[in-house]
Design brief:
Structural class of chain A: mainly alpha
Distance between the termini of chain B: 31 Å
Oligomer: heterodimer
Strand order of the largest sheet of chain B: 6-7-8-3-9-10
Radius of gyration of chain B: 18 Å
Number of strands of chain A: 0
Number of strands of chain B: 10
Largest sheet of chain A: none
Order of helices and strands of chain A: HHHHHHHHHH
CATH topology of chain A: MetI-like fold
Distance between the termini of chain A: 51 Å
Helix content of chain A: over 70%
Largest sheet of chain B: 6 strands, mixed
Strand content of chain B: 25-35%
Chain lengths: ~220, ~240
């Protein structure tokens, strides 16, 4: 091919590949923390305390109603200004993605909880099971089953959105591809490599999700 | 052991229970019968406060449970309940369903709870299904597990809310025979049912409800042979 010159970026390929664990760590850690944060938000929403219900609802609407990129830049730049704490790129990224994905996960979990049969509640009440235990041992396990597919979708979204970290200098796949591009004055090739890497990662997740769904259906 | 005093219950503008009073002594098997919409299930669910009465008092063992500060969870461990839709926990095996509350609410040791669970599964004839998950059980088996689950809390009374209404006809018998056996053990039972043959055979006493009133409270024998009220007569003529 005349227009594509992969040979020149070949030596830089390992450098771009090193972005994979970086991207995956942002995705994985934020998803993990975001799940717990989302669970906390859900408990606030479905619980009986008005103030918490309102606060969780307001929180969700803020994080769903503004661009993620804006949230990221704001947290990265505003934290040192407001608190004097010099937040690292990694911390800012994890914090933003966690806070953001928690808002979405909370909605998924709430849907999963609502899908659990109402009779479960009455059975638990009639046995004298306390609310917290009922939520933890009876509702959540069933709800998580209901929401596993949407959690996988959330992880796919997060994986792609994590590329935003390159804007504040996180050395993920996209950032590294960009660096290679400006070094070699070649844009198409390194960005194509980055795109292929994201695509492969997403396909692996999608495939895993299909397997999981099949397994859930049969068991 | 259960006493109801002028129980009223409204849903919005619609008054379902219009002042029902009655006594259910220890060891009695009481069947609540009546046409659909007469308030049978609502009355039953008022006994363990799954429905909170709009007015009136519910006493369990001479303690008023719907007034002041009462630990309703503790009361509910004394009064078990079996539902029309079984309401088993689908992610737990039969045995886990039965022993969850004894373990977590009564805080029995696992060994004790397991032994208890196995005893009651045996009682309902399902020893071989201890490790089966509810979705793999038939309707009749599910309801028998649900009965074992209620029994495992060793309650003083059990409420049955149309326990056979969701079952295929061929499975009604196995559930009724478990309940019959239970009645012979002296368990206090309150049963909302459409199974008149069963009520006649097993119940000591019948409450006949119509439009939110307790129209008739008689012994089972009297109710089915010579009911006092015209409305009960008309009802029996339709269903028997």
């Amino acid at each position: 091919m005349i227009f594509l010159d992969f040979e020149r970026i070949w030596p830089s390929l390992p450098y771009i590949l090193q972005g994979i664990p970086v991207t995956l760590s942002y995705t994985g850690v934020s998803l993990f923390l975001g799940f717990f944060w989302g669970a906390v938000l859900t408990f606030c929403k479905v619980g009986q305390i008005r103030v918490l219900q309102w606060a969780a609802g307001f929180y969700t609407s803020i994080f769903r109603g503004t661009p993620l990129l804006l949230q990221l830049i704001l947290i990265y730049h505003a934290t040192p200004q407001l608190t004097g704490y010099d937040i690292s790129i990694w911390q800012a990224g994890i914090l933003t993605f966690t806070l953001n994905s928690g808002a979405y996960v909370a909605e998924h979990i709430r849907g999963g909880i609502n899908a659990v049969d109402k009779g479960q509640m009455e059975a638990a009440l009639s046995l004298g099971i306390p609310y917290f235990m009922f939520m933890k041992d009876i509702i959540l396990p069933q709800a998580i089953r209901n929401i596993l597919p949407s959690l996988v979708n959330e992880s796919i979204d997060l994986l792609k959105e994590s590329a935003l970290i390159s804007v504040i200098g996180g050395a993920d796949i996209l950032r590294r591809a960009n660096i290679v591009a400006s070094e070699k004055y070649l844009y198409f090739e390194p960005l194509l490599v980055a795109g292929a890497l994201y695509y492969i990662l997403v396909m692996v997740l999608t495939f895993g999700a299909r397997l999981l769904e099949k397994k859930l259906k049969t068991s | 052991m259960i006493r109801l005093e002028k129980i009223h219950k409204s849903f919005g503008d619609h008054e379902v229970l219009k002042g029902i009073s009655g006594d259910i002594p220890q060891g009695e098997v009481l069947a609540i019968v009546g046409p659909s919409g007469s308030g049978k299930s609502t009355l039953l669910r008022s006994i363990n406060l799954l429905e909170n009465p709009t007015a009136g008092k519910v006493y369990i063992d001479d303690i008023c449970i719907n007034e002041g500060k009462i630990d309703i969870k503790k009361i509910r461990t004394k009064v078990g309940m079996v539902f029309q839709q079984f309401n088993l926990f689908p992610h737990m095996t039969s045995l886990q369903n039965v022993i969850y509350a004894p373990l977590k609410v009564k805080k029995l040791s696992f060994k004790k709870a397991e032994a208890l669970g196995k005893t009651f599964l045996k009682k309902v004839g399902l020893s071989d299904k201890a490790n089966t998950y509810p979705p793999l059980l038939s309707g009749g088996q599910k309801q028998r597990v649900a009965i074992a689950r209620a029994l495992a809390m060793e309650p003083e009374a059990i409420l049955f809310d149309e326990p056979t209404s969701a079952l295929d006809p061929e499975m009604v018998k196995e559930v009724l025979s478990v309940m019959k056996e239970l009645a012979h053990t002296g368990m206090t039972m309150v049963i909302v049912t459409h199974e008149m043959g069963f009520a006649r055979e097993v119940a000591d006493r019948i409450w006949f409800l119509d439009e939110g009133h307790l129209v008739e409270d008689s012994s089972s024998q009297k109710f089915f042979t010579s009911p006092n009220s015209a409305r009960a007569k008309a009802f029996l003529e339709k269903v028997l």
